Amino acid sequence: MLSDEHKKLARWAMEYGLKQGCQAARVTLYAGSDTEFEVRNHQLDRLQQSSENQLAFHAFVDGRFGSFSTNRLEKHELEKFIGNAVDAVRFLAVDSDRKLPDPSFYYQGGIDLLELFDPAFSTIHPDRKLAIAHAAAAEVLGKDPRVLSVQSNWNDGCSFNYIISSNGFEGENAVSYYSLSVSVSVKGSGDARPESFWYDQSLTFDELIREGIGSIALERTLSKIGQQKVASGQYTMLVDNINSARLLSPLLSAISGSSLQQNNSFLLGRKGQQVLSDKVILIDEPHEPHAFGSRLFDNEGVATQKRSVFSKGVLETYFLDTYHASKMQMPQTIGNPSRLVLNPGSRSCEDMTASMERGILVTGFNGGNCNSSSGDFSFGIEGFLIENGQRTRPVTEMNMTGNILTLWNALTEVGNDPRRNSSFLIPSLLFDKVDFSGL
Amino acid sequence: MTYNKRKTVESSLITASAILTTSTGSRCSIGEILTHFGVEEQILKRVLTTALEKGGDYADLYFEHTFNHAVSLRDGEVNSTFSGIDFGVGVRVLSGDQTGFAYVENTGPEDMLNAARTAARIATSSIKSPVKDFGLKIPAKNHYLIRQSWEDISIRQRIPFVQKLNDRIFSMDSRVNKVMVSLSDASSHILFVNSEGVMYYDFRPMVSLTATCIMQENGVFENGRAARSYRSGFEFLTDAVVEEIAREAVDETSIMFRAIKPKGGEMPVVLGAGGSGIFLHEAIGHAFEADFNRKGTSIFSDKLHQKICSECINVVDDGTIPFNRGAVNLDDEGAEGQKTYLVREGILTSYMHDRISARHYLVPPTGNGRRESFRNIPIPRMRATYMENGNASEADIIASVKKGVFVNSFTNGEVQIGAGDFTFFVKSGYLIEKGRLTTPIRDVNIIGNGPKALADMTMVASNYKMDDGTWTCGKDGQSAPVTCGMPSALIGKLTVGGLN
To answer: Which one of A34, A262, A406 makes the best mutation probe of the B interface by having the most chain B beta carbons within 10 Å?
Structure first.
């Protein structure tokens, strides 16, 4: 937890920067801690503990801007650090769009706290965490002779941020997190050693799913034995809820201020137009209590709000922070999304699989990229060939290729199964006629 | 941090007067280094002794003080900058294959001792290993002896090169619409001591210059990127490197207007010299990292000393290439940076080792134990990974392909260690039709299986080239600077992403 001394230091740093010649300044003070236990097979393989602090100083000097960070928090070192920072900024070109947010955009309070920090965080004994990691590994050990290696990871931590700006913003947040994951490697066909994983993560200890993680990891790994590629062609594609958010990332990058302002976006000038299937209803919902991604304000202190991103496929917002909004002379929104919710449909991944005549269920991506100017993409995939509603063989070593806007226009159904343990709640997605390259 | 470059400070401690070579070849003493980090030998021994109090058989302390700087250009002007300072010490304890680790961001005795007590908990033995007296280890050769440290260079001296790169790109092609340039540098001071008495100091410079170009033609935008990165000082910034990056950025962008997506499927792939080394990194490099093999999860776990490809193939991982982004004088466990043959005349001759795996396989360490920072434990990592020259010519290789693709510009790659499936994303290349390069291609992922692809490599040219781009490898949540390179080569069959 950040102490009053931390906050006094942040305020002092801001005021010292102003004395050194900044016309405006923002200071962010971060403190956090992290614990990890890694169990391999029957034995603790690694324990790791850490705690850290960092001060970030954002200097606005004579219409110029620079950002600086240090983990040396003694005042005499900060004095030199801030002094050098202000001197360095003076060498830059003037950029009048660099400025603090207008105070009217700042979070002013009035929203219930989001309950992102577990009050029990400091009460969980390390032995209990280690026992959970061992128990997760034990769900796999001895269960199948093909198992080569089991790795179980426990991770928990907390982070605290305090932001203070010279034009009146002051805010802080605290977040705790817990995660449990299991990776399994098995002897496959030939020399192959397929591996897979399963995990859960939560904001509070009580919410973390601790049973079944190892068993699911084993089941997912065994299902990959015998993977092979199938014939190239156009297939119906179902992407499961572990991987569906990957297909959203190029769209989010394309509507960020940094891409748009540099004319490096395939969605430049498309706001207000229907660019995706009318099945896409995507909303940024930052105020859900007790949820990953929720927040009251962003890194600038700007208040978050519920915001429609795509409404029936129509692009309704760009993500513009103070700088890019000013640069593009457009209304300011927020620098990046907080907690994205894709309006769910009515069927599960299993139900949609059962109704597929012939297609590919994608359960993992392997590399690939998307061109930010054109939206042209090509991703490696693995998963299963689906024939008459059944998984008939595991597939791998295949690529799916196309244009991301064309793909999202070929969306035929959204599932009902977003994972709750993510800031992107994207269910399984069904697409028509996707180009796959294999044999 | 600036040392007195001429003077050696005497000290009462045995090692404190030992002479070290600093970044620029001048001399300083280990006493100055210890003073800089605010520690003394007795304290270091006490921390190591505490780290071993629960029965660990080995402990080390890794001190780091890093200074980062960056200046960025957008819309024609250098209008933002960043600087960062990172300081701390990681305490590691080994008990057999088990690792205990903790770090703190200051070097006060109590904080270091607390970290040592945390890391010590990995062990549960009554046998206590001793801490030996320290002896200073000097690397056989400094692979990044620079002339001008970035710590002595002001932002004002950096800016003209950034501006020049922007201006040069605009001058080369009227279709250039936007340019982004970034110049970033880092200066890291590393002090290492372990319970076996090894102490070393290393200064690690790094610089990267990157340009992204956006062009517009008939209402269509395309982008391209070029970068160079070295363990080098300010002398890196020359008109020649600016010209090189500008030309490459413009060429990479302009070709995109003519490029098509090919028809997808299995076909021969000719890897162009240089950046195609990403194939080695992904297809076999990671699978040769000894931690995966020690744990039995790599597809090459049972292949050591076996023939895995043609006799014409030699693959090296090298930490000794001067000023290379992947160079290491001493790795992050004190092992000498070295040139390691992974594949020699088609035989898998060595994995890449950290301390734990070297002990497991009863072989000397290969200098691959690297960590992102004091916040991380060392693990086996690549450095500069490349294939040595073969006997063919690139022209002959292309001529031998009736229908396939030639690839020479890449953005990223990935691998599944156990299955052996690797990918790399081709930003641009060419169709090969009847033995000739024809239409440019773009934005395709190529996927294959590492052992099969290596075994299917039938021709290797004699035009080896190292790619000195900003390659950064991610593993276990840690980033490491690396490079890759190779001569042109033919792989008989890979799956090329494309349309049907």
So the answer is: A262
Q: Tell me the chain B residues in contact with residue A233 when contact means C-beta distances shorter than 8 Å.
A: 500
Tokens matching residue A325:
């909004």
Amino acid at A218: L
Select the residue from B282, B446, B495 to test the A interface by mutation, using most A Cβ atoms within 10 A: B495
- Flag if B423 and A366 touch (Cβ within 8 Å): yes
The dihedral of CA A12, A18, A20, A25: what is its sign? positive
Kindly report the number of other CB atoms within 10 A of residue B451's CB atom.
21
The residue type at A112: D
**From CA B104, how far away is CA B115, in angstroms rounded?**
7
Distance from CA of B127 to the nearest CA of A (A): 19
Nearest CB to A262 within list B180, B295, B297: B180
Phi-psi region of A285 (alpha: psi -120 to 50; beta: other; left: phi over 0): beta
Nearest-neighbour CA in chain A from B120: distance (Å): 10
- Pairing status of strand B384-387 against strand B483-486: parallel
DSSP string, B253-265: HHGGGT-BPPBPE
State whether ipTM is beyond 0.90: yes
The candidate with the shortest Cα–Cα distance to A294, out of A302, A285, A303, is A285
Q: Please name each of the domains of chain A with its CATH number.
A: 4-222 (3.30.2290.10), 227-439 (no CATH)
Q: Which residues of B touch A71 (CB under 8 A)?
A: 85-88, 105
In 3D space, the residue among A284, A298, A285 whose CA is nearest the CA of residue A252 turns out to be A284
Tens of pLDDT, residue by residue, chain A (439 residues): 788 999 999 999 999 999 999 999 999 999 999 999 999 999 999 999 988 999 999 999 999 999 999 999 999 999 999 999 999 999 999 999 999 999 999 999 876 689 999 999 999 999 999 999 999 999 999 999 999 999 999 999 999 999 999 999 999 999 999 999 999 999 988 888 999 999 999 999 999 999 999 999 999 999 999 999 999 999 999 999 999 999 999 999 999 999 999 999 999 999 999 999 999 999 999 999 999 999 999 999 999 999 999 999 999 999 999 999 999 999 999 999 999 999 999 999 999 999 999 999 999 999 999 999 999 999 999 999 999 999 999 999 999 999 999 999 999 999 999 998 999 999 999 999 999 999 9
* Pairs across A and B, CB distance < 8 A: 258
Phi-psi region at B428: left, alpha or beta (left = phi > 0; alpha = psi -120 to 50): beta
Task: Kindly list the residues from chain A whose CB atom is less than 8 angstroms away from the CB atom of residue B476.
Answer: none
How many CB atoms are located within 10 Å of the residue B73 CB? 23
Query: Which residues from chain A sit within 8 angstroms of residue B212, using beta carbons?
Result: 262, 264
Show the CA angle centred on residue B85, arms to residues A9 and A172, nearest 5°.
35
Q: Is B30 on the interface with A (CB under 8 A)?
A: no
Which of A239, A262, A216, A265 minimizes the C-alpha distance to A400?
A239
